[in-house]
Design a protein that fits this description.
This protein is α+β, with helices and mostly antiparallel strands and 209 residues long. It has helices at residues 8-17, 32-38, 70-81, 123-126, 138-146, 151-156, 161-177; strands at residues 4-5, 25-28, 45-50, 63-67, 88-93, 98-107, 111-118, 129-132, 181-191, 196-198, 201-205. The radius of gyration is 17 Å and the shape is globular.
Amino acid sequence: MMQRILTEKEAEDFLEKNGFKIVKRAFAKSLANLKKITKKISFPWVMKASSRDIVHKAKSGGVILNIRSLEEAESSFSKLSKLKEFEEAIIQETISGEEIIIGLKKTPEFGVVLLFGHGGSKVEEEKDIAFRIPPLKEIDIEELIKDIRFYKIIEQKCLNLNELKKVLMKTAKLSKKYKNITELDINPLIINSKEAQIVDARIVLEDGL
């Protein structure tokens, strides 16, 4: 069966339409766009190369952090635009908090599985991830959160558990609403004491939405 990988913009737009909170962002296809964006998004920025063909942005040098001025933004854009697959730049507000990974994966053994764990670039090294099979009740979500080692940090830093539970429940429900999702990765979801916002997302579909 044919598969389609959504761009980050498409994936985040899809999640936003389904009630998820996305970090404040804007898009630039040229240097001329950047000045307008300074009026919408405060520095420091995160700037990322966006393309259907760039799957691992960080590994390919497609992510630049801590951009603090228009001059730095223009330099960063010029650097990213030299990447072979570059289509446009995503500019995001920098937010503080802890990184979480949440996802869905269609498996031959269990059907769709919900995954949750400590997110960021070291996910594969840490392997601090737990799984559940939807549909899920609130008690299932609570048990899932407590299944990972990182739960101690969530407690210690008084991160917003209610917002985290909402994101997990919404993600689990997507698997029923959209049967053609074969993979969904939210990594990272940034969570702090106030809120939880998606900073990056990837979706693979069996066909169109």
